Amino acid sequence: MREASEYLIYGGTIENIEASDCWYEGRGTSYGLSIASSQHLTVRNSWLHGGRHGISLGGQEPVRDILITNNVIDNYTDSRVGAFNTHENVEYITVSENRILNGVSTVGDHLVYEDNDIELRTDYPGIIVKQNWHLEHLVFRNNRITSPSYGSLLETYLSSLEVKEFIIEGNTICSDLAGIGIKPRMKTAVNTKIKNVTIKNNDVVSTKDSAISIRAQEGTTIAVENMEIDEGTYKSLYNKGIFSQVSPFSGSVTISNTKISTEKAAEYGMLLINFSQIAIDGSNLQGPANLGSYNCFQYADSVIVRNSTLGNWGYKNGVRTYNVPRVQLENNAYINTPS
After folding, report:
1. How far is CA 75 from the centre of its chain?
2. Which ranges carry the Gp49 pectin lyase-like domain (predicted)?
């Protein structure tokens, strides 16, 4: 099949097709499959290739309750946009067990991306969320992502935008920039608020940036009420393991049973700024063989590090705080680190 376009469809299955180069005159390019203003559809076991997007979802009427599974989704290498794409007015979308070449660009609500193989052949994030309205629920689970840019990136575009729940769980990510990134996109995106971020049991390696990066751009603000990092490994080869600079008086961050490391000499393992409460328990904070600086926490009400192993840090106990009135270091093991 040379083209596939579905419009105002309310129920059905698209399966076992090959679709490519459906011409889209408004953009002067082509899609593999375009689903517009439709609901209750399954797309499976197909090969979908386009000049701009392999699959694109969106329309004037809501696109809702769509399952995309067991497909190969591709676009032209030089398109520099996601092979899988959603526009506004999209919700309750599940994208699972696909092979996606050249990444995902998405916006919407109640979005689930799970068990996908996502490979990038150009400088583009594995999954980028370009959010310009309130978001209730976003999940990245058990994906395998290889990218010369970000592994996954949530960007906000408008002021006072709220994200209620963001779950990143069980993913394997190898990327040049942050494996898990959250940031405002532009100066108009002030007062972004994220209520709950859950980062669990991921294996993340970043070659140039921090494995996890949550921070505002110049002139913007981003507040996080609650962030939980539980299990997994988060390693940077040439930067901090985690770097987060959020709005003053943001909420709490808890880190449990997690390995966080840097391989860059004299670098921080973590730099966390403006969280009210920081609690680290049962974790491994690892510097490089030729010693990192320390794990740095700034402008918090309290910092607790307990039952953890801190190795290969040049500074005493591997922890340094600035403007933190309450600091507790309890029952930790120090390896090649002064204590």
Report:
1. 22
2. 29-119
